[in-house]
Design brief:
Layout (H helix, E strand, L loop, with lengths): L2 H8 L8 H10 L4 H4 L12 E7 L4 E7 L7 E2 L5 E8 L1 E8 L6 E9 L3 E4 L4 E5 L6 E8 L7 E2 L4
Antiparallel strand pairs: 1-2, 2-9, 3-10, 4-7, 4-9, 5-6, 5-8
Length: 155
């Protein structure tokens, strides 16, 4: 069965708001780089490529491509929670505390191939590829993204 059909089936009858079910559903897909490579989008306006490959009332699935030394914007996910699976590569998830003057650095987490981690709506973060090899990540957000914010850091 192709990936899009598997996503439709996997996300039909599961409570993705429950972190254990979200993670186990993502892990049950047994994702490989071969399977997601057709959905990789090269960077255009941003440093990274981003492709929404599936969306229903409950979930939105995105493939993110981070070339070497690329980073996402500092952002949050509004009211959505997300399960992020590293399909290929190594990345740093840099966490921030919101502040009236802009986001303040809090901590850095390191993840590599086959790792999965959670971002809650209030999580403010940036993903960074510190390597010479590309990073490919698979994101499932529930409910679908609609009210997240991006931040800039004043100098």
């Amino acid at each position: 069965m192709d990936l899009l059909k598997r996503l439709k089936t996997a996300f039909e009858k599961v409570d993705l708001q429950d972190q254990k079910q979200l993670f186990s559903t993502i892990q049950s897909l047994h994702l490989s780089i071969d399977e997601v490579s057709q959905f990789i989008t090269p960077p255009q306006e941003l440093e990274y490529g981003r492709n929404v490959i599936f969306r229903n009332e409950q979930a939105e699935v995105i493939i993110v491509y981070l070339p070497s030394f690329a980073k996402t914007l500092i952002h949050d996910h509004g009211t959505s929670i997300g399960g992020l699976f590293v399909v290929q590569g190594k990345l740093l998830n840099i966490l921030y505390h919101p502040d009236e003057h802009g986001p303040l650095y809090a901590q850095t987490e390191a993840y590599s191939q086959n790792d999965i981690f959670l971002v809650k709506g209030e999580t403010t973060h940036m993903m960074f590829n510190p390597t010479l090899s590309p990073v490919i990540t698979f994101h499932v957000y529930t409910p679908p993204l609609k009210d997240g914010k991006s931040y800039s850091i004043s100098k």
